[in-house]
Amino acid sequence: MNNTTSTPTSTRWESLLYYWDSVLPDILIPYRDVSPLSFFLCLQIFILNTFIIQHYKCKDGYVAQMYFSIASVDVVTSLGTILQTIAVVLYTNHACTLTELIWTYTVGFAISGISYRASIFLNVVIAVSRTISILRPFYHIKRRMVLVSCALYSVVWMFLTIYEIERKLKNKSNDIFWINWYTCK
After folding, report:
1. Is 121 in contact with 150 (CB distance < 8 Å)?
2. Are 164 and 113 in contact (CB under 8 A)?
3. pLDDT class of 16 with cuts at 50, 70, 90
4. Distances in Å between the alpha carbon of 55 and those of 64, 76, 128, 138?
């Protein structure tokens, strides 16, 4: 009696890799074609935010600190997007394997996703702070509370991202573009 059970997970993972390896190059061609534009836009964002960082590095005050933080987070976002762009170009030119694409793209997507959300949060914090300063000019904003809230916000997103990546790796899901459950829709 042949009592076969389901295929082992390693064979399932290999079959998924084979499937995606045969289909993905055709899907990624449009992304490869716009990669040079994306790369140069991200490079420009990196350079301009570096100038902003240099300008606000020596300044003192709450607003200068917030602009410095926003520019720093935007530099990290551009680096994550550059990493994704390079991964797509390397894979479509057959310079890396599908597994390397998945890891590189996941790391780039996680970096840019977390830093993108931190940038939005910092912009909202500075908008609320300026509104408070206009409505109550003599009210002093507690910098420590702002710092704690920004750090806590980023840490929560880091843990959610790590959890999602770990969950996808454990299940060996066929979803190539991970961390999509919290993206902006």
Report:
1. yes
2. no
3. low
4. 9, 18, 23, 27
Once rounded to an integer, what is the mean pLDDT over residues 175-184? 45
Is the confidence at residue 176, as pLDDT, over 80?
no
Q: How many CB atoms lie within 10 A of CB 25?
A: 15
Tokens representing 84 are 């994704």
The dihedrals phi and psi of 89, each to the nearest 5 degrees, come to: -65, -45
Residue type, 103: W
- Rounded to whole angstroms, how far apart are CA atoms 183 and 171? 20
Task: Evaluate if residue 4 carries a pLDDT over 60.
Answer: no
Asked if residue 44 lies in contact with residue 86, where contact means CB atoms within 8 angstroms, the answer is no
pLDDT greater at residue 30 or residue 92? 92
Residue in 76, 77, 82, 98 with CA at minimum distance from that of residue 28: 98
Q: Check if the beta carbon of residue 119 is closer than 8 Å to that of residue 70.
A: yes
Tell me what pLDDT residue 178 has.
45
